[in-house]
Amino acid sequence: MLCFSHLRWEFVHQRPQHLLNEAASDYRIYFVEEPEFAQGAAHFRIRTVASGVTVLTPVFDAACDSLREQRLLVEELQALLDGSPVVHWYYTPMALQFTRNLPCDLCVYDCMDELSAFRFAPAELAALEAELLERAQLVFTGGQSLFAAKRRLHADVHCFPSSVDTKHFASARVHSEDPLDQAWIPEPRIGYVGVIDERIDLDLIAAAAKALPLIQFVMIGPIAKISPDDLPQAPNIHWLGRKTYDQLPGYMANWQAAWMPFALNDATRFISPTKTPEYLAAGLRVTATAVVDVVETYGKKGLVSIADAQTIVPTLKTTLGIPPEGWRQAVDQHLALMSWEGTWDAMQSLIQARLRVGQEA
């Protein structure tokens, strides 16, 4: 399986890493990242992660024809593979620019975001996605909103909302030593984990922090596509930067609640945040803005509190109190139906069925 991704393997541990780590038990996985630039002959920088996934970073001179170099590297890679079936797995339609002429036994598009709605999206992205939808035999979506949008464009679309490693995050339900860069912060704390970009409502964060000066807001994650200078600053807002996946439960174990202060804009219209079940698995009550998939999957079931600019302050206060009777049991019943292993097994069944059809044709 050759996976073409716009996200680097080491950036933030999310859907691609979870699924491909599971897939590594069934396939040889080659994860092709976006390129880096250095003088010298074009090559892949190669490393293998614990699950067995081979991560490949194209490296070539910035002055060269980047699409040509990427195409040659991928063609050389595929030529080295034996005669077993080859699956192409796309996270970004942009990769079609250097793979469209490369043969495969099955083409899969795992659509985890509406990338064309993101800030600085390339102008050609929408056309390339249309081409990818023509090429792909299978399309997966990361949430119900994306499913509703893509099912009109392809005959074989399947919704696989992002899942959760419940055991990993449930360790946060047991008190653990506070990480050093958080230990000095007073309680109560309300935390956020995720990429900090144009999807975050910075004005909402500033307003909530101003209205709730005794509550500490711990913000964890890398900053992307916005200037650090734009981040609201206050004595009770703490921007702690990126943490590894393994570190996250240690931070969450020392929070009293969590939140998802998403802006409601084009970039969040189709998102289905992986952090929602992760917070819940950690035992945290969650406040979120009205992102459609969060409302439909968690809000209407009473698992997550939904708020806007007018209700965010009382809602955050409420989540610091005693949970409603039965809330934790309802959360655990919901999470019991979710696992990345189960998600991959269902995807794999569809993949194998399509491969069999192709072999019989």
TrEMBL record:
Protein's name according to its UniProt entry: Glycosyltransferase family 1 protein
